[in-house]
């Protein structure tokens, strides 16, 4: 779904070491983030796939974007 290798995924996880989502695993949030970028799925569809609210997904998407942008 993302075309990102396991090594790149792990590197991105390392860059998110300060990121602490409250209710969901960091790996799941990163996967949703990458799926949004690659597949251009709507936040609503991704929220359904990951069984979370759209607002939670949006908040975490932009949090990850901000962290990766500053690194």
Report the mean per-residue pLDDT as an integer. Answer: 94
Biggest beta-sheet profile:
none
Oligomeric state of the chains in view: single chain
What coarse outline follows from CA principal-axis ratios?
globular
Q: How many extended strands? A: 0
Query: Which regions contain 5 or more consecutive residues with pLDDT less than 50?
Result: none
The rounded Rg comes to 11 Å
Q: Give the percentage of residues in beta strands.
A: under 5%
What's the arrangement of secondary structure elements?
Elements: H1 6-15, H2 26-39, H3 43-50, H4 54-70
Helix pairs in contact: 2-4, 3-4
What does this protein structure show overall?
The protein is globular. It has helices at residues 6-15, 26-39, 43-50, 54-70. 69% of the residues lie in helices and 0% in strands.
Quick synopsis:
Helices cover 69% and strands 0% of the residues. It contains four helices and no strands.
Task: Output the keywords.
globular; 4 helices; 71 residues; mainly alpha
């Amino acid at each position: 779904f993302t075309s990102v290798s396991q090594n790149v995924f792990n590197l991105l996880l390392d860059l998110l070491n300060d990121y602490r989502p409250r209710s969901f695993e960091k790996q799941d949030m990163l996967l949703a983030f990458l799926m949004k970028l690659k597949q251009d799925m709507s936040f609503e569809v991704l929220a359904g796939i990951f069984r979370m609210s759209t607002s939670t997904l949006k908040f975490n998407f932009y949090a990850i974007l901000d962290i990766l942008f500053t690194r």
